Amino acid sequence: MQNHNRRKMVEIQGVVKFFGTLKALDNVSLDVYDGEKVVIIGPSGSGKSTLLRSINKLEEVNAGSIVVDGFEIHDPKVNINKVREEVGMVFQQFNVFPHKTVLQNLTLAQVVVRKRSKEESEKIAQGLLKKVGILEKAHEYPTKLSGGQQQRVAIARALAMQPKLMLFDEPTSALDPEMIGEVLDVMVNLAKEGMTMIVVTHEMGFAREVADRVIFMDEGRILEEGSPEHFFKNPTHERTQQFMRQIL
Amino acid sequence: MAEITKTPKDKEKKKVSIEVGDGAAIPSKEDRGLFTAWRVAFFGAIGIVIYLAVFKPDPYLDIMKFVPDGILVTFEVTVLSILLALVIGLFTGLGRISKNPIINGIASLYVEVIRGIPLLVQLFYIYFALGRIIQMPPLPSAIMAMGICYGAYMGEIFRAGIQSIPKGQAEAARSLGMSSGQSMYHVILPQAFKTILPPVGNEFVALLKDSSLVSILAVADLLRRGREFAAESFTYFETYTVVALVYLIITLFLSKLISIMEEKIGAES
Ligand SMILES: Nc1ncnc2c1ncn2[C@@H]1O[C@H](COP(=O)(O)OP(=O)(O)OP(=O)(O)O)[C@@H](O)[C@H]1O
Ligand SMILES: [Mg+2]
Fold first, then answer.
1. What is the DSSP letter of B4?
2. pTM score, two decimals?
3. For residue B180, what is the domain's CATH number?
4. Is residue B220 part of a domain?
5. pLDDT 10s per residue in chain A (248 long)?
6. Within a domain: residue B10?
7. Residue B118 lies in a domain
8. Which secondary-structure segment (H or E) carries B224?
9. Quick one: three-class SS letters along A81-117?
10. How many domains are contained in chain B?
11. Which protein residue's CA is at the shortest distance from atom 7 of ligand 1?
């Protein structure tokens, strides 16, 4: 499904990131096209989160360039907050706002950042809560919800900004097994609607269902990339084969 | 003053424990001994005041008529100073966590310097030393000195409170496009408030007690009123007994109020 005539949503080139002396990203380049779904896999510490977090500048890289939606995010003239408005992020630990109700979690940034009216943002919020199946919890505080419900709130909160790109960093790995499905369902539906998605996950079933491309990272580098089928059937590198045996 | 120490027990739920080193001990239900100690002290003090007023009206009733004017001044100094300290404390706390080395440096320097100079010396400095340059009346001088002094401690409370909120909260806010100021205002500070409130309450009680120092600058607070009465009537023992009892009743009452507030907040979350 790779179509190189499509617009590039993300262009990462020669990115290097150090934590002290540790090279977390080692000359990484990756293009993600409009509407494309990319799944990133790889062993712990291979730099998956760091790569994802550099796309919305939660991590600042030491070298290379990252262009998101046409903006080079390290250009001092580019307002990173404007770029982030268009890039939703979902975290492993949900990071819902515990002092706000579910509805307020979804309206806060709409009002403060997007400058929408309270009524309009609540309407959008309710629509999204219905979509992720927790409309009846709109007025609860998120701490009262299960992990799966909290993560769906977090996804809806990001979607309320109507982003062009969604980043997911292991969205199901902090969940009890019985709740993984409800979160993945939401993500599959989102993919079907055409959202551009970059997803760090080891849920290979999800990758097989939605991924246009799977990227395998190892020691800060992209070691191998291809279709989900390629990774299931005949991964090239020994490291990849090893890793696939572990997670399948 | 209150000191906040972080125990990095659990990564996600960083628990902040606050050790109270000053101010009347805050009674809690778990601490049975202290709880009854509070009762004995509070109701004992009130009982003694009533006893003295009824059975020894001369001179106690006269003292009790003269001194309370000072209570209002004491509260005025305390409330205005704490408000000033809160404003200074917020900016100091933000400065202390700032990545800008200049802002951070200034905030840290302020905290170090202020904490190293006794409050009484600061009072003298602002009223008498700076008074040579800009003359200020005693009350504003006193409030300024107390506010600046407690602002440094308040800054540390704000810093610890802000840092007690998991990093993911700010990251989530920023990833939604909020500026660092918006994230601080809408996401971090409202959550830090719960951690900050009890030690701020402690500072309030401590400041109320320290406010007795301003009597030196001829501010007619509780202690000053007592001094004036005693000097005229030579009833030093009786007057200072009343002054001490009044301070005790006020601080015990406030400590109780804080502990109730704390319990309410704890029950909410
Ligand atoms: N803030 C940080 N400070 C120092 N080192 C860090 C920091 N964040 C990540 N690292 C290190 O950078 C490397 C890459 O980390 P990263 O979190 O990107 O890995 P990952 O592939 O997401 O791993 P995991 O599957 O465990 O989430 C690791 O060695 C990690 O210890
Ligand atoms: Mg990770």
1. E
2. 0.85
3. 1.10.3720.10
4. yes
5. 555 568 999 999 999 999 999 999 999 999 999 999 999 999 999 999 999 999 999 999 999 999 999 999 999 999 999 999 999 999 999 999 999 999 999 999 999 999 999 999 999 999 999 999 999 999 999 999 999 999 999 999 999 999 999 999 999 999 999 999 999 999 999 999 999 999 999 999 999 999 999 999 999 999 999 999 999 999 999 999 999 999 88
6. no
7. yes
8. helix B222-233
9. HHHHHCEEEECCCCCCCCCCCHHHHHHHHHHHCCCCC
10. 1
11. A19
State the ipTM, two decimals: 0.94
Of A70, A38, A73, whose CA–CA distance to A55 is shortest? A73
Answer yes or no: do A113 and B177 touch at CB < 8 A. yes
Could you give the 3-state DSSP secondary structure of residue A226? strand
H or E segment at B222? Answer: helix B222-233
A58–B174 C-beta distance less than 8 A: yes
Is A247 close to ligand 1, i.e. is its CB under 6 Å away?
no
Tell which of B176, B187, B265 to mutate to test the A interface (max A CBs under 10 Å).
B176
Token pair for B164: 């007690």
What is the extent of the structural domain holding B200? 20-268
Asked whether B222 and B242 are in contact (CB, 8 A), the reply is no
Task: Give the B window 187-216 contacts with A, CB below 8 Å.
Answer: 187, 190-191
Chain-chain contact of A112 with B190 (C-beta, under 8 angstroms): no
Tell me if B165 sits within 8 A of B193, measured CB to CB: no
Residue B1 covered by a domain: no
The Cβ of residue B146 has, within 10 Å, a number of other Cβ atoms equal to: 26
Torsion of CA A215, A219, A221, A222, to 10 degrees: -20
